[in-house]
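pls design
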């Protein structure tokens, strides 16, 4: 399984970015796709994830600002990030979990300037 992310970059506080992630390889119809972020000096944090059926889960720190969505036909997951804050600065990793196995993308940097 391979995951390719896109959409990171530099944005001012209050701005928005949209991350995308496309999965390929041996994929099952039922899986969990999501986004984690890793900031130096901090533990990895689950940002949001969504089941194949669309049930979503968010970290408290992003609720109301971020929206995760999936396009199962394209094996893709997206993260719309609005009202970005400096503390959202991190490397964001796409993740897929299927049959208990975790797969990761290469990561994309999101930098929010205050």
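designed seq:
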């Amino acid at each position: 399984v391979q995951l390719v992310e896109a959409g990171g970059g530099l944005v001012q506080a209050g701005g928005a970015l949209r991350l995308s992630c496309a999965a390929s390889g041996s994929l099952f119809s039922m899986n969990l796709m999501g986004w984690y972020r890793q900031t130096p000096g901090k533990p990895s944090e689950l940002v949001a994830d969504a089941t194949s059926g669309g049930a979503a889960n968010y970290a408290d720190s992003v609720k109301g600002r971020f929206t995760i969505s999936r396009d199962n036909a394209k094996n893709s997951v997206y993260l719309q990030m609005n009202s970005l804050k400096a503390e959202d600065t991190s490397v964001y990793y796409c993740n897929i979990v299927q049959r208990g196995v975790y797969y990761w993308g290469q990561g994309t940097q999101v930098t929010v300037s205050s």
